[in-house]
Design goal:
The longest helix is centred in the middle third of the chain and has 4 residues. 3% of the residues lie in helices and 47% in strands. The strands form two sheets. Strands 1-2-3-4-6-8-11-12 form an eight-stranded mixed β-sheet, with no helix packed on it. The chain is mainly β. Strand 2 and strand 3 form a beta hairpin. It is built from one helix and twelve strands. The relative contact order is 0.16.
Length: 122
């Protein structure tokens, strides 16, 4: 059974009611699947949000191949820790022309979308 909890302040500064069940977050806009990681990880197509704790060291999140992910959207968020999150691509793919991006400030996040040619930051 899901428990209702207040959670996120959205961009219009309005609190929203969110519902959490297991590793899913119901936002009122649909079900969001998230994972929490503290070691290197390759994003799964079933992930929507990847929360990263860098307390134990730098963590690399590798995006899946574009051919498998066309139209897929990921949010990658750096939570605790003083180390970087590296968002890397598969093989020779790019994120807006670069092989990787770095989240080097705590609480920073990045939304990326797989297009037919590369990952784009939204």
């Amino acid at each position: 059974m899901a428990t209702r909890i207040p959670l996120v302040l959205d961009t219009s500064n309005q609190f929203e009611q969110h519902q959490r069940e297991s590793d899913n977050l119901f936002t009122g806009y649909g079900l969001v699947r998230y994972v929490s990681k503290s070691t290197d990880y390759t994003a799964a197509l079933t992930d929507d949000v990847i929360l990263v704790d860098t307390s134990g060291g730098e963590v690399t999140i590798t995006l899946p191949p574009i051919a498998d992910a066309d139209g897929k959207f990921f949010t990658i968020k750096r939570l605790g820790g003083d180390n970087n999150v590296i968002v890397a691509t598969n093989a020779s793919e790019t994120i807006q022309g670069e092989a990787q991006k770095v989240l080097n400030v705590r609480w920073w996040g990045m939304d990326v979308l797989a297009t037919d040619t590369e990952w784009v930051i939204i």
